[in-house]
Amino acid sequence: TGTVDISSGKDFQRFFPVDIYDGAFFMANPNEEQEFSKVVVNADGEVVVESGFTVGTDAPFQIAIRDSAFGVFHDRSTSQVIGTFDPRTLTKTGNIDMGAGQLPGTGASRYQSFYFKENFLYAPVRPEVGGNYDSLGIHVADLSSGTYVKTILFSTKGSPSNDFGQNDLDEAGNLYIPDSGNPLIFPPAPAVLNRINAGSTDIDPTYVFPLGFVLNQTNI
Q1: Phi-psi region of 73 (alpha: psi -120 to 50; beta: other; left: phi over 0)
Q2: Strands, E, within the chain: which ranges?
Q3: What whole-number distance in Å separates Cα of residue 124 and Cα of residue 194?
Q4: First vs last C-alpha separation in the chain
Q5: pLDDT for 48-59, tens place per residue?
């Protein structure tokens, strides 16, 4: 029905929001500085970086907000540490040592996503360089004590997927963690939802939800 002139729009080097909370984007700095940023729309309707904190890598990625006073992030220059921060001021508040966490493979790792449930943090791991491990590995931390708790190793053929702010908890308090599957092996492994039941810190082995096959049973 018409066109919109965007020639006067604002350009960024990258714009990749990872979490959204209270009207703000939380993400890697859009001008490719080595920091995580809180990006907002100001009173003039402009998209601006409101605040940020530095990290030791030029490729920061995973950050998540639990509530107005608490968030977590991963500085990929310290692969076995999860940082905590205050989303109101974007100031770092501490670190959780995850060095005891097991990996379902070899080489350096990174955290692909973060999930909050019952004061626990669930952090699926993926190789730093991308690709897949041989099974799904999830590091679990107790946020009340700020300590590593356990590693969940679950036999699968895919890597963890990003959640990008969807509701991961259902009304009963069950947590759903997606696994991307792997179409490059034979037989192909479908993408699935894995479930951690309310009151538990383990994946329910009886719950298997392969989305593609449920939605389309002829899906190859």
Answers
A1: beta
A2: 17-21, 24-28, 35-41, 47-54, 63-67, 70-73, 81-86, 91-97, 109-111, 115-117, 120-127, 136-142, 147-154, 175-179, 192-196
A3: 12
A4: 38
A5: 999 999 999 888
Residue 174 in tokens:
């069950």
Q: What would the two tokens of residue 115 be?
A: 């999930």
Cβ 157 vs Cβ 138: under 8 Å:
no
pLDDT one-digit tens code per residue, 101-155: 999 888 889 999 999 999 999 999 999 888 778 788 999 999 999 999 999 988 7
